[in-house]
Amino acid sequence: MSDNQISNNQNKNAKKRAARERMMAERAAQERRSRRNKIIAITVAAVVVVGGGVGAAVGLAGGSGSGSGSSASSGKLVVPKNATGTDGTVIVYGRATAKNTLQMYEDFRCPVCDGLEKSAGTTIQSMADNGTYKIEYHMGTFLDNNNGGNGSMNALAAAGAALNESPTMFKKFHDVLYANQPEETVDKFGDTNYLLELAGKVPGLKTTAFVDEVKSGTFKPWAQKVSDAFNSSGVSATPTAILNGTKLNVGGTTTSAQWTSAVNQALGTKK
């Protein structure tokens, strides 16, 4: 074999070794990426499983979870009448004399909140109406951040205009929003005209003042304050229900009977 043939064979072998090394390196990199993605998926799944149903997890996409917060917080803070708490960030429904307090943490774009509303909403309200507890609503807007858009913030600001009318109007509008909730990733609540259309389903809500407040975004700075308070609450998913400090084991498929049982257990009472 000539020197040229030996040299050519050595070059070919070197190229083959280099190719194998590149393939092995790429395969190792793919395996590392696969392991990392599995770990992320498992972590996310662990975070969002709550109370017998899958809840919407706060801040998985990063950021403050306040959606269009920079624009929402730029105006003058106007707190709706009937709001309570620091900066009026708490919305109370029910009898003021009720001895027990149910804290509900929700986001208007949360599909699991919608599921709970549809499966046990009537019972949740009736127990507030009969004085078993009063409800403190703590509303978040983190799904705007997670999914894009400003529907949660826009809906909350419109709900503030309803609260400015009365807590009863807020509750009725709250229920209408869930009854007509779009898919989580569809930002239909970002359309103010759609919110006004839904407000028309609540008799007596669409006063001139209400329409003007919704169109002008009067309560958007307030909605940002409410969102900020939610983000600081330590609650990690919606819906979360806490009765007198006890977290209820409920989720999007909780029935009325299961809700009543959870409440009775938390209060230490019998059916």
Mean pLDDT: 83
Q: Tell me the number of structural domains.
A: 2
Quantity of strands, as a count: 10
Please give the CATH class of the largest domain: Alpha Beta
CATH superfamily grouping of the largest domain:
Glutaredoxin
Question: What would the keywords be for this entry?
Answer:
271 residues, 2 domains, 6-stranded mixed sheet, two-stranded antiparallel sheet, 10 strands, globular
What does the secondary structure layout of this molecule look like, with pairings?
Elements: H1 3-48, E1 49-50, E2 53-54, E3 56-57, H2 69-72, E4 83-84, E5 90-93, E6 101-107, H3 111-129, E7 134-140, H4 142-147, H5 151-165, H6 167-179, H7 192-199, H8 208-216, H9 220-231, E8 237-238, E9 240-243, E10 246-247, H10 256-267
Parallel strand pairs: 6-7
Antiparallel strand pairs: 1-2, 3-8, 4-5, 5-7, 6-9, 9-10
What does this structure look like?
The longest helix is centred in the N-terminal third of the chain and has 46 residues. About 12% of the residues have low confidence. This protein has ten helices and ten strands. It is of the alpha+beta class and 271 residues long. The radius of gyration is 26 Å and the shape is globular. A hairpin with a 5-residue loop joins strand 4 and strand 5. Helix 5 packs antiparallel against helix 8. It has two domains: 50 residues; 213 residues, Glutaredoxin (3-Layer(aba) Sandwich). Strands 4-5-7-6-9-10 form a six-stranded mixed β-sheet, with helices on both faces.
A few lines on this structure:
By secondary structure, the protein is α+β, with helices and mostly antiparallel strands. The chain contains ten helices and ten strands. The protein folds into two domains: 1-50; 55-267, Glutaredoxin (3-Layer(aba) Sandwich).
